[in-house]
Amino acid sequence: MIAQISVSAQDAAAYRRDGAVVLRGILGPQQLRLLEDGIEEAYANPGSRYSRVRSPDGQGETFVEQYVSQRSPSLKALMDSGLVGEIAARLMDTPSAQLILDQLFYKSPGVIVPTPWHQDTPFLRVRGQDMIRVWMPCDSSPPELTVQVVRGSHRWNVVYNAQGGEAEKVTKPEVLGEYNHDDLGDDHLPPPPDVARYRDSFDIVQWDVQPGDVLVFQGNMLHGAQGLPWYDRPRRAFASMWGGPELRYHAPRGKAFPAPGSLGGDAMIPHGARIGDHEDAFPVGWRARA
């Protein structure tokens, strides 16, 4: 895991201020090849931890798979290079970055269904501020198809419910693998605000992205994506969530994605424990040299 990047002071300041930033052209040809090859090989041969989601009228398709780097040689090589973990640690300003979750997103050409506004936090077994999402597209994507965020929402100090509200109106599961999102999250939490309906009431940040760009946002942020009636190309991305060593383990009341190093065997981790003390469950993707 060799240091390969530097984050500019301007990018770090934007991340601290807004909770999100796009790092332009940070992936080179080799990393882009691993990214695209890994997404395509995983999409062509799905594992067990996937779902396919369509709109209520059956239009469009979004394929999502969890922990895909564990079975894709190309994506594993990209993660093992240390590049992704270093991006996370540099922006969190932590001495290391530990993997919490990785996912593949593949929106097929044709009708592009919106991604409902949501927060990743209720799906996870961690809580805290040292948490970051690294979203790596391998296609050009206009602002309406790229992930958008509500500026500053990572500082609202609230965890929203993963179910109900806008999500029910936008998408429904058509084919489900091992992980049914309807079973995830603590149901006692408040519903997220309806950002799509009241866009003018929120400070929404959006970008266009090109292959080689990396979109990074704080792990507690509200985010989503608009759709299009028709788009002639897929929108493919590989996203990972990382935490610093002081991030705390959360034992949910309901179901949540397991820690990646255990995939279900993390029940013995004490609630509130530092993930830095449980590197077997949350593997280190990058660590600063002593």
Pick out its properties.
alpha+beta; 17% helix; 5 helices; 9-stranded antiparallel β-sheet; single chain; 17 strands; globular; 4-stranded antiparallel β-sheet; 290 residues
Q: Would you mind describing this structure in some detail?
A:
- With 290 residues, this protein is of the alpha+beta class.
- The strands form four sheets. Strands 1, 2, 3, 4, 8, 10, 12, 15 and 17 form a nine-stranded antiparallel beta sheet that branches. Strands 6-13-9-11 form a four-stranded antiparallel beta sheet.
- Helix 2 runs antiparallel to helix 3.
- The longest helix is centred in the first third of the chain and has 16 residues.
- The chain is globular and about 50 Å long.
- The chain starts with 8 loop residues before the first helix and ends with a strand.
- The relative contact order is 0.24.
- About 4% of the residues have low confidence.
Q: What is the compact description of this entry?
A:
This protein is α+β, with helices and mostly antiparallel strands and 290 residues long. The chain contains 5 helices and 17 strands.
In whole angstroms, how far apart are the ends? 14 Å
Count of individual helical segments: 5
By DSSP, the count of extended strands is 17
As a percent range, the share of strand residues is 25-35%
Helix-strand string: HEHEEHHEEEEEEHEEEEEEEE
Mean pLDDT: 90
Q: Categorize the overall geometry.
A: globular
Q: What characterizes the major β-sheet?
A: 9 strands, antiparallel
What is the C-alpha radius of gyration, as a whole number of Å? 18 Å
Helix content estimate:
10-25%
List segments where confidence is low: pLDDT < 50 over at least 5 consecutive residues: 167-179
SS content category: alpha+beta
